[in-house]
Amino acid sequence: MAERFPSSEPVSGDSRQGDYRHSRVVGASVPRREDPRLLAGRGRFVDDIALPGMLHAQFVRSSEAFAEIVSVDLSEVRAVPGVVAAYAAADLDLRDITALLDRPAHEFVPTAMPVLARDTVRYVGEPIAIVVATDPYAAEDGVEAAVVEYAPREPVVSDLGALAEGAPLVHPEAPRNTLVDVSLFATEGIDALFEAAHTVVEVHTKTGRQNALPLETRGVVADWDDRDEQLRVQTCTQVPHQVRTVLAACVGLAEKQVRVTVPDMGGGFGQKCVVGREEIVAAAAALRLRRPVKWIEDRRDALTAAFLAREQRYAVRAAFSETGEILALDADVVCDMGAYSCYPFTAGIEPLMASAEMPSVYTVPAYRVRGRAVTTNKAPTAPYRGVSRPQYVMVMERVMEKAARALGLDPLEVRRRNLITVFPYTGVNAITYDPGSYRESLDLCEQTLRDEGWFDRRSDGVIGIGFACFSERTGYGSGAFAQRRMQVVPGFDLSEIRMDLDGTVSVTTGTLSHGQSHETTMAQIVADRLGIPYDRVKIVQGDTDRITYGWGSFASRSITIGGSAVAAASVKLGDQLREIAAHLLGGDPAAAVLEDGGVRLEDGRLSFPEIADVAYLRSHLLPKGVGPGLAATASFDVAGDGTFSNATHGVVVELDPGTGGVEILRYVCVEDCGVAIHPQVVEGQARGGIAQGIAGALFEVVRYDDAGQPLAPSFMEYKVPTAAEIPDVRIEHLETPCAFTENGAKGAGEGGTIGAPAAVLNAINDALRHTGVELDDTPIPREAIFRALEAS
Amino acid sequence: MIQLVELSVNGERHDLAIEPRRTLVDVLRHDLRLTGTHVGCEHGICGACTVLVDGQPARACLLFAAQVEGADIRTVESLSEGGALNDLQQCFSEHHGLQCGFCTPGMLMLAEGYLADEPDATKEEIREVVASNLCRCTGYQTIVEAIDDCASRRRAALQDRLDRSAS
Amino acid sequence: MKPAAFEYHRARTPAGAVGLLTELGDDAKIIAGGQSLVAMMNFRLARPEHLVDITHVDSLRGIAVSEGEIRIGALTTHREVEKAGLGVLSAAMRWVGHLPIRTRGTVGGSIAHADATAEWCLLAVLFDARIVVEGPSGVREIRASEFFLGPFTTALGPDELITALVFPSPPPRAALTEYADRRGDFALVAAAVDLDADRVVLGGVGAVPTLVSGKWCSGTTYRARAAAAAGSLELRDEPGISAHYRRGLVRTLVERAYEEAANG
Ligand SMILES: Cc1cc2nc3c(=O)[nH]c(=O)nc-3n(C[C@H](O)[C@H](O)[C@H](O)COP(=O)(O)OP(=O)(O)OC[C@H]3O[C@@H](n4cnc5c(N)ncnc54)[C@H](O)[C@@H]3O)c2cc1C
Ligand code: FES
Ligand code: FES
């Protein structure tokens, strides 16, 4: 297969400068290393693992939204054939999970999440007890035999209900059910700007609660290993080190007594980037029983009891000049975070993101925002692909559209008058935006749809066109996360690289691929730095024993930060190789060139195996001061505010006046994520993201009834769109390289999801323009479209 | 409540003593350790469990193993003989029709069953069939393209063989 | 989501199946394609103690066309009908779930399950198909118009088996259409029309497939007939869908079904 891979170009002494333009494998859509095993059905996902003597767990879950637990009786459970053990909170004595922000009490109220509910249940589906049995069928039989007596309380089932005077308190320590309440920026004189403004527009919107919905549900296999004196935890998580820390603390082990490894993973999208409760209980049961325990979440639990996201309410005012310049923005954001704060991000994840970044791609001179997280009796929330950006981008793009309508201007023209075009740009929100192609992407997106003739087909009540301009901060370094004031501050990444005797390389990354192709793209980065084919590089990820520390994969950080660390480690290894070769051949290490799997100097060439031979087997030949072995470690962090990818999405919809149905006729995405390591992978991320954004705009929502019962326990109700609903997407690339990542790359993981809801909503409203009706909530009810068109 | 069940999977015969309530997908994955077939919902909608039963794509989560005694069952493990990916699998790789790969075995078996039945399917018909299964990663476009490409290649190869035997 | 335990019984003949049902009593259930039943069992919403598997009863399979009649064995799958060239019966199958559901799901199972929006239930009522049933006391036929009694409730006795459906030769000018937000879902509203008989059957507007013929004068436009059909219904607001919207869908879908029937 090796000849299918382009060979690497020589990498000269200045590769440290990130000389990506001269590389050959980076930028090529080479075959993915992950594909053969996944296509052959030979991947290893967590449910594919079977250990001798393994037991299977399921959970007794709360049937009430809010109640005191009067009693939990598991005696019948233990009598069910096949059931080996059943434990409630009192049996296991696990420490609570608490995520913290370094913020004053009026801004943040810490709350604890018990691993198993102890006295109170706060949402339907909350785990109360674990049942462990010889097979999953018996485990469910056992769950059915549990008797839990509740003293129900009046549940809090909406954000408004949570904030209402005299509402019951989900957590007694959180007055008004408010976990986070920040008021930020408040530019001086902002009220006067509103008073004096020619036009003020308002957007009020509510977005539906969504499930990130990895197709593989959550799961774990845990067992105690006497030889290693370790609890081995194989689990599909985006953040193995954080799971280790919390799990060790909860069950009372030292960190080195817990090894978390991550098998192949069927998606995560954020739902798996927080520490879950069931994994910890299953591990505790394995520890107690000294037998392997597996827990695989079933779909009903995944739809009702897993981490959810995105239920937000915005009340926004924006002041505009007569000519369409935005003058001021005033926003109130309330996020319904459900019953608990997630670790490590806390319930602040959504409101803090929205508050900090809402001005988006526009030059907003004055800004004031209040961001709140309220707690309700619903399943808790976690970050989900895009985190708040799909929502606030939708709000900002509605602001632009409404301003254009109010002023009688072309909405694209209004955007152009406000887009950031001079970089770096430091906004009123104190964020510095690195160079991007905001204006260019809008121009190209519009032109593409014009050239395809869609503007001629626009027609009232039938065909509408909508756009969304946005940027996306990627590569949040520790500086950017520190601004959130999380007590645990993610950011850097560490990479350790090693070359073995035969010249092959293994390299660790603290990031973790779960569909994003890092086994390929990270290998491409290493290959170019060292001058070897990328299939000679093995990526080591998702193992707390083999990786010193990592923050996992989320927030489009993997290539920007992880890829940079991998590149930096490669360069260090390259320096070692050059130094040894120069010593052996006689010459100047600075003049040595890495190419074709070896080092070339004026007076000859040594292959990597030849150098490795000396480094390991004949170390007496090494230059003075150079130790044996070929290994290096490097870390990387993004200084400052991170790097911003950007894009414009353009959507054409067709409405069916007879049904209110929506069909997406055309989708164009013009994106700029700097240097694309693997363009096909970047396009895949964009398309998949767009599908999830469309899902949020048109299909998916988790509703609850007044008693707090979730109304979407199956895929019949939770309507994940299929190939019949998701259109083909034309993608155009622009490239504004990032100046401060090693490869010039920016993140590409979330953009699709961010732009789609705004663009779809705008397109529908464009088709409804003549009716005077504007739809601002998602998912958009077809009935609302039907009624708007019927009335016109 | 143990039942003797004889299954034919990928041309191999297996004798099992199982509870009748075990679904085909659990038997394939956990009793026969053919873990290529996945589970995503256990109520027939996601399609991750799609296998071929007598050549037809079917949901292995909605069948009890006991029901398909005597049927010819094919799973994703049957596609790559001798370790080499077949033409459909290669098309998936070339078109980047998989990211996390969780939906992939179901998509492959859906497509194999369908193309065997409808070799002349148009791209729009293929899209309609792909709508049978859920994928959360790709947005479907590259899956449809991969299957469509494979179908055209198979048609071209068939034409080629016909032409050659005619001459 | 694993089903509760049950005992499995395999029938080889219709009489054998009926015998098992009689012998095992109320806790026994037939399993055909399993495309409705197993999903419910996985959720433990159904928990029969005995399953009588009829999938090996070969005499229940197959389609026979004879003078003026189409006889479809109960075990015939949606997919088999789809490929059989039976006019509207085949054409309607594209609305039943997706391909892998249609390869297993059966005609008899759909009728017995009696979902009020199921395509087979609509078609049966539209043409007043005869439902052939075998029980302890022999074979009887039930007209579709008398078969569906309520939500998921039919005139079938607990120890009876559906063996076949008999349709009149498919009228050339009939059509079925429906609307759901997402492809392959059970319809929000479904409409089936027989243009020559001027019969309209609706799904999603009541507990059973609803026949609304004869309430308008023939000769009016399709739109007027659709409006009359919609106007004749008693509908209530439900969470997420108002009576007004549902009525609107009926109007649209009936008109479209008429047009499709007329244009073939
Ligand atoms: C994802 C999905 C989507 C679907 N979409 C649709 C759709 O859009 N439209 C639609 O109509 N259906 C749909 N279905 C259901 C499908 O059509 C089923 O096949 C059908 O409803 C039941 O047929 P079955 O053979 O699978 O019956 P089973 O599930 O085996 O049985 C269903 C019921 O009928 C009884 N029964 C079965 N056969 C007989 C018989 N011969 N005599 C007496 N009783 C019998 C059983 O005891 C049981 O109570 C869908 C199913 C799924 C999983
Ligand atoms: S697991 Fe069978 S369809 Fe989802
Ligand atoms: S590739 Fe991940 S679900 Fe399809």
TrEMBL record, chain A:
Residues 1-27 are annotated as: Disordered. GO terms for molecular function: iron ion binding; oxidoreductase activity. It holds the Pfam family Ald_Xan_dh_C. Gene3D superfamilies: Aldehyde oxidase/xanthine dehydrogenase, a/b hammerhead, Aldehyde oxidase/xanthine dehydrogenase, molybdopterin binding domain. Residues 40-154 form the Aldehyde oxidase/xanthine dehydrogenase a/b hammerhead domain. InterPro entries: Ald_Oxase/Xan_DH_a/b (IPR000674), Ald_Oxase/Xan_DH_a/b_sf (IPR036856), Ald_Oxase/xanthine_DH-like (IPR016208), AldOxase/xan_DH_MoCoBD1 (IPR008274), AldOxase/xan_DH_MoCoBD2 (IPR046867), AldOxase/xan_DH_Mopterin-bd_sf (IPR037165). Keywords: Molybdenum, Oxidoreductase. The keyword Ribosomal protein does not apply. Signal peptide: none annotated. Its cofactor is Mo-molybdopterin cytosine dinucleotide. SMART domains: Ald_Xan_dh_C. This is Carbon-monoxide dehydrogenase large subunit. The lineage of its organism: Bacteria, Bacillati, Actinomycetota, Actinomycetes, Pseudonocardiales.
From TrEMBL, chain B:
Pfam families: Fer2, Fer2_2. Pathway: Alkaloid degradation; nicotine degradation. InterPro entries: 2Fe-2S-bd, 2Fe-2S-bd_dom_sf, 2Fe-2S_ferredoxin-like_sf, 2Fe-2S_ferredoxin-type, 2Fe2S_fd_BS, Beta-grasp_dom_sf, Diverse_Oxidoreductases. GO terms for molecular function: 2 iron, 2 sulfur cluster binding; metal ion binding; oxidoreductase activity. Keywords: 2Fe-2S, Iron, Iron-sulfur, Metal-binding, Oxidoreductase. It comes from the Bacteria. Residues 3-79 form the 2Fe-2S ferredoxin-type domain. This is Carbon-monoxide dehydrogenase small subunit. The lineage of its organism: Bacteria, Bacillati, Actinomycetota, Actinomycetes, Pseudonocardiales.
Automatic annotation (TrEMBL), chain C:
One of its GO terms (molecular function) is FAD binding. Residues 1-172 form the FAD-binding PCMH-type domain. InterPro entries: CO_DH_flav_C, CO_DH_flav_C_dom_sf, Diverse_Substr_Oxidored, FAD-bd_PCMH, FAD-bd_PCMH-like_sf, FAD-bd_PCMH_sub1, FAD-bd_PCMH_sub2, Mopterin_DH_FAD-bd. PROSITE patterns: FAD_PCMH. Keywords: FAD, Flavoprotein, Oxidoreductase. Pfam families: FAD_binding_5 (PF00941). Coiled coil: none annotated. It comes from the Bacteria. PANTHER family: XANTHINE DEHYDROGENASE SUBUNIT C-RELATED. This is Carbon-monoxide dehydrogenase medium subunit. It comes from Pseudonocardia oroxyli.
